[in-house]
């Protein structure tokens, strides 16, 4: 039984400390405590390093395969996420000649205003906010997905979460709402994994180009160490960053003219022109069914010779669409945040991409 299933089996009782004042601050385990509880074996650490290198080779143009960040908008149900991971792992082996999937295991969700903020924040989906249990579940789930043979992708949103999870990550997103944030550029500068910076929710690409430049530099910044103590961190800079075009202000930016303009902005800034197109979000006008047309358009651009299109993102789960968060009445395998394409559509799209890229 994987760690997540064990966690779920044993974690049904409330996990808050008996004497904790629910209104007051409550202690969290230090990163080192969770690492000890859910350690990374040397073999898995080596596999993650190899996966990170594979992602970087695609983004540097040294590997002609297509990188695809694919999976649910949010990981609200670890059992369903593992069911999805097992399917994706099988498909990944079948398409390995042309496609390198990295699986979205998003445990923090940025909200436009308010809403459920992710497994790490509220694992019981009821507003109880058991962050301690959410952190443990998040680490256990990411490790189980990694042990499934899949590179793990996530958005890092709360910088304090990074020391709990970063050793498990093969690709990291900085989201549209935080690409302009200096804290997230500092965070990215210290990561070993490649980092994709989303364009702004307005559609503006320059903030992401600036973020890539900032993240490439070393930074000295406030951070937390493995023991949970505040420290002065010194990073060496991360040269493995790239732009993610996700549309903005209700308008897509995945078409050839947008991609060419973005590549020009990147090249004039001396940045890597290879980029990822997020087929969801504003590129799909928040309609999950439009992800297919976005992906097929991008594939056509690649076939026309634009190899700067090195990567794609798909929001995909077991079943298509989304559902309201009604605890106790949730349908299995359906997103509770953004709408997703279902597994059958995902499999068909990835197989189509592999055939066209062969
Ligand atoms: O990917 C998820 C959403 O784009 C993001 O969390 C914003 O969702 P919201 O506008 O419903 O808050
Ligand atoms: C929140 C996400 O995207 P964005 O930052 O582009 O809204 C996401 O990819 O889940």
Q: Can you give a write-up of this model?
A:
With 358 residues, this protein is α/β, with parallel strands linked by helices. The chain has a single domain, classed as Aldolase class I (TIM Barrel), CATH 3.20.20. Helix content is 36%, strand content 14%. The strands form 2 sheets. Strands 1-2-3-4-5-8-9-10 form an 8-stranded parallel beta barrel, surrounded by 8 helices. It has a two-stranded antiparallel sheet with strand order 6-7. It is globular and about 60 Å long. It starts with a helix and ends with a helix. The model is unreliable at 10-18 (pLDDT under 50). Phosphoenolpyruvate binds next to loops.
Q: What are the secondary-structure elements, in order, as H or E? A: HHHEHEHEHEHEHEEEHEHEH
By DSSP (H or I, 4+ residues per run), the number of helices equals 11
**Which architecture name does CATH use?**
Alpha-Beta Barrel
- Kindly name the structural category: alpha/beta
Query: How would you sum up the major sheet?
Result: 8 strands, parallel, barrel
Number of domains in the coordinates?
Answer: 1
The order of strands across the largest sheet is 1-2-3-4-5-8-9-10
What is the level 1 CATH name? Answer: Alpha Beta
How far the N terminus sits from the C terminus, by CA atoms, comes to 37 Å
Low-confidence stretches: 10-18
Secondary structure: number of strands: 10
CATH superfamily: Aldolase class I
What would the keywords be for this entry?
single chain, 358 residues, alpha/beta, TIM Barrel, eight-stranded parallel beta barrel, two-stranded antiparallel ribbon, 11 helices, 10 strands, binds erythose-4-phosphate, binds phosphoenolpyruvate
């Amino acid at each position: 039984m994987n760690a997540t299933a064990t966690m779920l089996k044993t974690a049904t009782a409330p996990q808050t400390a008996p004497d904790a004042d629910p209104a007051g601050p409550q202690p969290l385990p230090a990163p080192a405590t969770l690492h000890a509880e859910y350690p990374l074996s040397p073999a898995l650490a080596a596999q993650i390093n190899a996966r990170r290198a594979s992602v970087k080779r695609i983004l540097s143009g040294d590997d002609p395969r297509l990188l695809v960040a694919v999976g649910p908008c949010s990981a609200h149900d670890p059992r369903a996420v593992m069911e999805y991971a097992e399917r994706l792992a099988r498909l990944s082996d079948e398409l390995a000649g042309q496609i390198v999937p990295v699986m979205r295991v998003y445990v923090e969700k940025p909200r436009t205003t308010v809403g459920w903020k992710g497994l790490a924040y509220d694992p019981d989906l009821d507003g109880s906010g058991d962050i301690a249990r959410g952190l443990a579940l998040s680490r256990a789930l990411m490790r189980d997905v990694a042990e499934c043979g899949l590179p793990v992708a996530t958005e890092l949103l709360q910088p304090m979460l990074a020391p709990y999870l970063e050793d498990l990550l093969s690709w990291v997103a900085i989201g549209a709402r935080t690409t302009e944030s200096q804290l997230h550029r500092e965070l990215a500068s210290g990561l070993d994994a490649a980092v994709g910076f989303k364009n702004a929710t307005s559609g503006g690409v320059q903030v992401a180009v600036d973020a890539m430049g900032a993240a490439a530099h070393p930074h000295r910044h406030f951070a937390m160490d493995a023991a949970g103590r505040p420290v002065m961190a010194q990073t060496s800079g991360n040269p493995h960053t790239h732009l993610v075009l996700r549309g903005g202000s209700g308008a897509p930016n995945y078409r050839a003219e947008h991609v060419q303009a973005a590549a020009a902005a990147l090249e004039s800034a001396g940045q890597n022109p290879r980029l990822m197109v997020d087929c969801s979000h504003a590129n799909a006008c928040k309609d999950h069914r439009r992800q297919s047309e976005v992906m097929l358009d991008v594939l056509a651009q690649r076939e026309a010779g634009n190899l700067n299109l090195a990567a794609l993102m798909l929001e995909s789960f077991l079943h298509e669409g989304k559902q309201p968060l009604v605890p106790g009445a949730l349908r299995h395998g359906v997103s509770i945040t953004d709408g997703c394409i279902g597994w059958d559509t995902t499999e068909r799209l990835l197989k189509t991409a592999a055939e066209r890229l062969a």
